Amino acid sequence: MNIPNKITISRILLIPFFVIVMMFDFGWGTMNLFSAEMPVHHFVGALIFIIASTTDWVDGYYARKYDLVTTFGKFLDPLADKLLVSAAFILMVELGMAPAWVIIVIISREFAVTGLRLILAGGGEVVAANQLGKIKTWAQIVAIAAALLHNTIFVIFGIPFDTIMLYIALFFTLWSGWDYFYINRRVLLESK
User: Fold this and answer.
1) CB of 59 within 8 A of CB of 49?
2) Nearest-CA neighbor of 95 among 51, 130, 46?
């Protein structure tokens, strides 16, 4: 259990705190941030989400810099991302911040790719996320952060940045999913 893997596990452990803070109004009131009015608990939840998301970059950087990349880390890191992002997207539907159909498509893709990863792992292959998958993850993180922060800053200009980013995230989610299955199609074709 090296330091990057511990950082990844910390990301998973932050998820319940994030969900609790987002779901329950602790009577903290509301706040105004760059013309965006929001409940304080949404702001705190957004900060927890952003901190947890940042650990994705930190653990990857640390693992590559100090040559601490492990098979366990290659498996756990994308799983931690999926758990955090799925929790946030489900909360967004619950809070009326995103249409359910978009979130269903995104989460379905995540399950499908995870299933393919499990098939590959059964054959002895552990596949780390490729560049397109990383772009997808960061597009999702930016979309979620913008929504949780109630489109702060952009609300001044009347730009629905959170919605724009959600559809950009949907696009990269579908593209990276197709790419993942296309690259690994031999596994599906050989499993007749």
Assistant:
1) no
2) 46
Distance CA 74, CA 126 (A): 7
Tens of pLDDT, residue by residue over 5-24, are 999 999 999 999 999 999 99
From 64, 60, 78, select the one nearest 127 (Cα to Cα). 78
- 0.85 exceeded by pTM: yes
Q: Which residues of the chain fall short of a pLDDT of 50?
A: none
DSSP string, the chain: --HHHHHHHHHHHHHHHHHHHHH---S--EEEETTEEEEHHHHHHHHHHHHHHHHHHHHHHHHHHTT---HHHHHHHHHHHHHHHHHHHHHHHHTTSS-HHHHHHHHHHHHHHHHHHHHHHHTT--PPP-HHHHHHHHHHHHHHHHHHTTTTTHHHHT--HHHHHHHHHHHHHHHHHHHHHHHTHHHHHH--
